[in-house]
Amino acid sequence: MMIGDKLRAERERQNLSIKDIEKGTSIRSLYIDAIEKGAYDTLPGEVYAKGFVRNYANFLKMDADAAVKQFVEENHPEQAAPAAPSGQTSAPSPVRPAQQVQESSRQAPAFHQEPRQEHDFVERVERSHHRQTLWMGLAALLVVLVGGYFLLGSSEEAPAPQPQKTVSQPAAQPAPQPEEKQQPTEVKLAAKFNGRCWVSVKADGKTLFEGTIEKGETKEWTAQQRLTLTAGNAGAVTVMYNDEDQGVLGKEGEVVEKTYRLDGAEDADGASAAEKKKK
Fold first, then answer.
1. CATH architecture, domain defined by 187-268
2. Which terminus of the chain faces fewer neighbouring Cβ atoms within 10 Å, N or C?
3. Model pTM?
């Protein structure tokens, strides 16, 4: 039996009408009828539908968690995942044949020996180069030492500057700067309920609250970056966002979802409040 059939059967068993359910749960009769008929396309979204099913089941004193679970299973039937192919043994990478080492190409045999005189001449030239390099390094080091000595000596002998007498003048008073409004470090939301309303609250992607709040109650929630408020009866909710009055969330019986960030608020369609005022 579908979850909608179970809810309808229990409602009829308790001699309740759809209008009775609407009055007791603040869920519009259109959505109650859609749940009972399984016409889930009529609902405003899955997150609202789950809340409506839970609220409906709680009102009839049924197992709300079981009702929501069956609703999710009906909308997302498990699909058998294709069997993963058995472990495949990757083909061994082809082994490149080792390159043959040709000793004849690396170490060519000396068929002719240099004449002794030419060999001695090369050694003398190399020793001469080594001596020249050594002398050049010593000369460069000597230049650096001499330059450093004169530089330090001149800085030590330079007379210290004489202090100049100055007439003290009163310091000019800086012009007062306008106080900058501090950037909030968290999203803070306070909601006052002027009527019974189903509410879902998510902070940074994590659900903080989901259920029905009675008339006259006040709730507060905080988030680090983003807080999303969904109300099934927007006309019953008055919102304070970071200590600023935002007024009534929407119309009576209207389902409204709004996201509040550190830099402002925006509706579910992505439009900020400032952009809507321009329009």
1. Sandwich (2.60)
2. C
3. 0.42
